[in-house]
Amino acid sequence: MDLLSVAFVSAFIAGFLAASMPLLVASLGETIGEQSGVLNLGIEGVMLFGGYAAFVVTLATGSFAWGMAAGAGVGIVTSLFLLVLSVLLGLNQIVIGLAVTLLGGGMTSVLYFGNYSKSTPRLGKDEPFSLWGLSDLPVVGDSLFSQPAIFWIVLALAIGVWWMLSKTNFGLQLRAAGQNPNSLDASGGNVVATRAIAVLLGGFFSGLGGAYLALISTGTFTPFMTQGVGYTAIVVTMLARGRISWVIGASLVFGLSVAVGTVIQLTNINLPTDVIKMFPFVVVIVVLVAFARSAYVPPALGLPYSRGAR
Amino acid sequence: MSKVETKAGENAMTETTTKNRSPLLRRLGVGFIRNILPLVLAIFTSGVLLLAMGKSPAFFYGEVLRFGLMGTGWQRSLVMLAPLLLYGAGLIVAFRGKLWNLGYEGQYLLGGVLVVGFAPFVMGSLPLLLGFIALILVGTLAGGAWTLLPAFLKARFGTNEIITTLMLSFVGIGITNILIRGPFQNVDVTVPQTQVMPLDTMFPKIFGTRIHIGILIAIVVVLIVHYVLTRTSFGLRLDVYGASPKSALHVGIDTPRMVMILFFMSGALIGFAAAVDMLGLWGNMRANWNPAYGSEILPFVFLARLSVLASIPFLAFYAVLATGGALASQDIGLDSHFILVVVALILMFMSVIEFIGMKRDLGQSYLPPTLRKALAKLLPQRKAGNP
Amino acid sequence: MASPDTHSPTASTPVLSIRHITKTFPGVIANNDISLDIERGQVHCLLGENGAGKSTLISILAGMQQPDEGLIEFEGVKTNITSPRNSMDLGIGVVYQHSTLISTMTVLENLMLGDTGSVRLDRKGASARLAELSELLGSKIQGSALASDLALGQQQQVEIAKAMWKGSKILILDEPTSMLTPQAISGLERSVARLKNQGLAIVFITHKLREAYSVGDEITVLRQGRVVKNISAEEMQRSSEEQVRSLVLGAMFGDDIDAAGKSEIAEEISGSVESHRVRPDKSFSGLAPALVLDGVSSAESMTETPVREASLQIYPGEVLGVAGIDGHGQRHLAELVAGQRKPSNGKVLLDGEDISGLGVRGRQRLGIRYVTDDRMHEGIVGDLSVAVNLVLKRIGAAPFWKYGRMNRSAVEEEATSLVELFDIRSPSVQTRAGTLSGGNIQKLLLARELTDEPKVVVFNKPTYGLDLKTVSKVRAIVKNFAGEGGSVLLISTDLDELVELSDRIILISNGRLAGEVRNDSPHTAERVGELMLGPEAA
Hints:
The complex is a heterotrimer. Helices cover about 70% and strands about 0% of the residues of chain A. Chain A is mainly alpha-helical. Chain B has 16 helices and no strands. At the A-B interface, helix 3, helix 4, helix 10 and helix 12 of A face helix 7, helix 8, helix 13 and helix 15 of B.
C-alpha cells in the first residue's frame, strides 16, 4: 500500500484518533479526581461498565447519543462506589480501586457472555458531524474532520475542564483539596463534598471514555476491552500534573504510537503483532524513566481526609 | 483512616488491641466478624446477583462445593493452591513494605514462559532433580528481574511504583507472547504454544493422587518466608519501613536497599509460583493465556492481614472457590469471570468491616458527620461522641 | 470590614461569651467548665502552658470541634458554631500557629480560597480587598507571590488578612510569636494595635507571661483545662508588671512552685524574666573537639533548606546552641551530624577521624545520637511496642538479636529498666508507643538515644509542645549529660532555652552558620537577637 495515499493517511488518522480519544476522555476524568486528591485505580472497571452500558443502549435504540449518555451515566453511578467507600468512609483507595476494576471486568464479562456471546453484534458507524466544510480539505479533511459529534464534544469538554480547574472557585477548592485539605477545611471549604463532586465528574468521564471506546473506536463491546488504557490514563495524569494541555498532548502521543503500530502492520516490515501492541507501553515506560523526577502528584493524593484527626 | 492492617505487631511484641484482656468468646466473635463475615456477605450478595440473572444461588454454590471438594475436587483445589501460596507470599512481602507491586501478571508469565521454554533443553541434559532446581531458579530469577526497573526507579527517584509495575506488566505479557510465537514455538503444532513437557519430566504426583509435590515445596517455602518476616531482624526492618519510611531512615535502615530487596523477593516468589505451576500442572503455555491469579487472590491476602501463615487457609478457600467455580459456571451457563465479582465483593465488604472495627476500637463514630447527625435526630438522645 | 466603635448601649455586650464549656477526649478533659468574655476593641490574652487546653478552646471557636457541654453567645445571641464556614460567617477569624497556607499556590489564590460567592474566580475583586487589608494592617503583601516564597512574618500577615477577609469581629491569634524574629514581632504588635483601634476584638494566645502583659488588655489564665485566674481590664490597668506576674504565677503554679523547686525557676519557665545561664561556665582550652563539621553542605532539596558550608566544633562537655528561625536548615544540620544525610561537600569528624562516609548505624555505634523533633512520625513507630522502639536503632545487634532472631527477654529487660530510669509513663512495655502522650514519647526517645555510651547528642527542639514538668526534666537531662562530659548540639527556636543551657550559641540562617555568641554574660539573649536581625529582616 502506498504510504502516502489518501486511503492510507485516512486509516492512519482514524486509528490515531480512535486510540487517543478514549485515553483523553479517561485522563480528563482522572485528572479531576487526582487534583482533588483521590486516586481512582478502578478506572478500567468504570470504563468497562460505561462501555457495556453504551453498547447495550445503542444496540437497542440505534442512537449513539443515547449510548454515550448511558455510558457517562453508568460511569457516574459506578463511581458512587468509589465515592462512598474512599471519600466518605476513607478506606484505602488502592484496595477499593482494585475491587472496582475486578467488579467491572467480572460483571461486564458475565453479562456480555450471557447476552451476546452467541450473536456478537456490531454497531455501525455514527453519523459524522461535519464542521463548516472543513471536511472538504484535501487528504486529511475527511478523516480528521468528519468525526461524529461526540468528538467535538470531547474537545469542548477538555476546554471546559481546563476552564473549570483554573478559572473557577470550585476549581481552586478542588486543587486545594489535593494540595492541602487541612487548609481547605480551615478556609471553610468542604473537603468531602469537593472530592465527592470530583469523583462523580471523574466517573462521568471514565464512563464516557469507555463508551467512546466501544461505540466509536471499535464499534462493539469485548470483555476486558480496555487493555490497560485506564492505567495509561493514570500515567498521563501523573505526568501532566494537572495541565490540560499536557493531558491532550500525552494522549495524542499515545494514540500516535498505537497508530504507528498499525502502519507498520500495513507495510512490509515484518514485526510481530505482539511487539506492536507492546509499543505504546514501552513508550510510556521510556517517558517515565526519562521524566522519573517529574512524575509529581498532589501531596494529599490517596490520603483520606478527616477533620481534627488525632 | 483505614489502613490495610498488617500483623506487624506479631513481630514486635505489641499488644494487638488496646483491650487485651478480652475473654476468649469475645475474641472468637471478633475473629468471626473480621474474617468470615466478609466472605458470607459477599456470597450472599453474589447470590442476589445470580437470582437477578435467573440462576439459582443454591445450585451454583452447591456445585462450587461439589467440584471444589468432592470426589477428586479437593485434589484439584490443592493443585491450584500450590502456586497461589507462593504468589500470595510474594504479594505479602511487597505489601508489608507498602510497596504496591502491581506488575504480578507480567512477572508470573515471564517466569512461567522461561521455564517451559527452556524445559526441553534443561530436562534433556540434566538429571531430574537438578533439572527441577535449575528451572525453578530460572523462573524465580526471571520474576525477580522483572521488578528491578520499577524497584530502581522507586529507590532512586521515588517514582510511583503503581504505574511502573503496571506498565512493565503489560510489556512482560507482550514479551511472553513474542517468546511463545518465536523461539519457544512448538514446531509440531500450528497453534501458538510452547512445547509440551513430557509427564515424566514434570513434578511427580503424591501417592497416586492428582496432587504434585509442588504443594509440599510451596508449604515449606512459605513457612520459611513467614519465619523470616516475623522472627528475624530483617522482618522487623521491613515492618519499620512499611510503617514509616521516615522512621526507617532515622533508625539507620538502608531504605533504597530495602526497596530493591523487597521488590526482588516479591517478583522472585511470583516467578517461583509460575515455575511450580508449570512444572506441576501445565507443562506448556499458550499465547494470550493469562490466569491472572494476582488480582483474584489480592482480597485474600488482605483478609489474612498480610500474614503469610494466615494466608494459607484463606488461599485454600479461594482455591476451592475458583476450582469449583470454574466448573460450576460452565454447568450453570455463566461466564467463568463471575468469580471476579465474588472476589471484588469480598474485598469491599472486608474493607468496610475493617473500617467499622477500627473506628470502634478508637471509640469514634464510623458514620460520616452528616449521616450521623441525621440519624441522631431520628434516634433517642445519647451521650455525645459515640454512636 | 471591621465595624467602627459604636457607643450604643449594646457596645457593652461582649462580642463573644463563653459559658461553662467542657470538652473531653478519650482519657483527658481538655476544657473543663471554661467561662470568659471577649470584648470588642480589646486584646484578651489566653495564657497557659502547653497542654492547658488553649488549642482545644480555639478549635471549638473555629468550628472544628463541638463542645460536650456549655454554651456560646455571640453578641448576646445563643449560637452553635458547627463548622469553620459557620465560624467565619459569624465573623470569627483564626490565625493558627502553623501556617494553613497552601505553599504551592499564590497569596491571592490562598486568599480567594473558601470564597464561594461566584462561579468565576474574581481576581480583581480579590486584589482590591487585599490592598484594602494590607493598608489596614500596615504591611505590604504581594498578591502574586507564592506562599512558600514568603518569610514567616509575611506569611503571618497573609494569614491575618485571610482571617479578616470576609469582615471580622473577632481575630484569634494562636501563639503568633513563636516563630518570629524580633522585627516581625514588632510588625505584628503594630498590626494588632491598629486592628484594636478599629474596634476588632482580639484573642491572643501565648505561654509567655512577658508577652501577655505587654500586649494584653485582659488576661485569662488556663491550667489543665480550667480557668484559674482572670485579670480584668481594670485590674490590669492599675497593677504593675510585678503584681500581675505574682498573681499569674500563683494561679498557674500554686502548689507546684515547690514541686518545680524554686520560684525563680518557675518564673524563668514562664518566661517572665530574662533567662540566664544555669550551667557553670566552663573552659575548654586544651581539649580537642569531639565533633567537627568542616565546610559541610547538603544537597538541594525541594522541601527543606539545605546547609551551606557549615563549620563548627563541639568540645567534650560543651553545649553548642543553634538559634534561628524554624526552617532555615536546622533539620539538614541535624541529619548531617546524625548520618541520615550525606554531605555533598566537606567533612564530618569525630575525635579527629573522618566519619563522613558512615551512615546512621555506624555513627550510632561510635556514640553519635539524634533526638529528632518529629517525634511521632520519625522518632517512633507508633504501631510497635515501647520495648521495640527502645531498641529500634540497634536492630540485629547483640544481645537483643542472635543469628537474626530477636531475644525477647533481653529486649524486655532493657526496656523495663529504661522505662524506670527515665520515668516513662506507660501501661506496659508492650503498649503501642503511639498511644503515649507527647511528653512520654519524648522521654522514650531520650531513653533510647542516651543509653549505650552516647558521646555526641543532637537535640532538635527537645521541649517543643511539652508540659512544664517534662520540660524541666528534659533540660535536666541535657545538663547532666554535658556535665558528665558529653557533647551536645542543641537546636532550638526557644531563645530562653538556649540561653539557659548553652555554652556558646551560633545562628543558622538560610542554611549558613552565621555568628557566634559566648554565653558568659547576662546579655546573651540580646546579643543573639542582634545577630538574628543581621543581614535579613523578616
